[in-house]
């Protein structure tokens, strides 16, 4: 079986959240059209109207998905109570992510899709020392620098700085960070999205992109020099643009991805355009990783109200990216 045709591995994430129920709904909608398997405890996946089907190896998912939701069993020490994370399960949640990375790195899965985790539960129960999924995946893969992309059919955005206070952004926004972010994004657009000559728009940091220095000098001193240097290497870059004019339909038609300077500058437009269908993609890993763009939603877990749209989009995007990277 070629890597591109191998099933997608899904780490179960926090079993007390909405992960188990949206995984069941995703299997109902995708069935054998997009074979995937969950790494987790089968008992945590029962009770959602879908039969968990334990499998011995990843390759069994293609046939098991005809009967139910394929599960590569990984025992958890405690039951899953919706909305109430149990610290006894924290270590197993972390182990499942590592097992997913191992499966995909060995070529047994074409990509890894991660269901949401709850970082506080992992810190409290297992002393988890990483800020989140992305940093832990980079650690497991031995990669120093990765990039977060949020993607939907109408927009791809990449925040250069992510989970830091707004007051800390100017100091964090170094030439090296911006240059690395653009290069990793450019490489991924070619390798995983099939764009031979990606067009990348770069936002400014300040209102009106600094207005010639009147509203800040980051565009003059940091952003523009990086853009010009990378243009000289052959990258198709534009900017720095005033962020308030970058995301209407006409502007979006002129680029394949937007590099933004901070978290909300990137996430507000994509969540406005497609709140339910956005996908979190980690660029720069040696394997494909996607994730739904939402959290564990403890407040609605177990109530049958969770929307699987983003998870389904994450699985579909993972399949498309695997086809691009490895050949259909």
Automatic annotation (TrEMBL):
Q: What is its main location?
A: cytoplasm
Its Enzyme Commission number(s) read: 1.1.1.262
Q: Which residues bind substrate?
A: 133-134, 271, 280, 289
PANTHER family attached here?
4-HYDROXYTHREONINE-4-PHOSPHATE DEHYDROGENASE (PTHR30004), D-THREONATE 4-PHOSPHATE DEHYDROGENASE (PTHR30004:SF6)
Q: How is the cofactor bound?
A: Binds 1 divalent metal cation per subunit. Can use ions such as Zn(2+), Mg(2+) or Co(2+).
Name of the protein described by the UniProt record: 4-hydroxythreonine-4-phosphate dehydrogenase
Biological role stated in the UniProt entry: Catalyzes the NAD(P)-dependent oxidation of 4-(phosphooxy)-L-threonine (HTP) into 2-amino-3-oxo-4-(phosphooxy)butyric acid which spontaneously decarboxylates to form 3-amino-2-oxopropyl phosphate (AHAP).
Organism whose genome encodes this protein: Roseicyclus marinus
Q: Which GO terms describe its cellular component?
A: cytoplasm
Q: Which residues form a coiled coil?
A: none
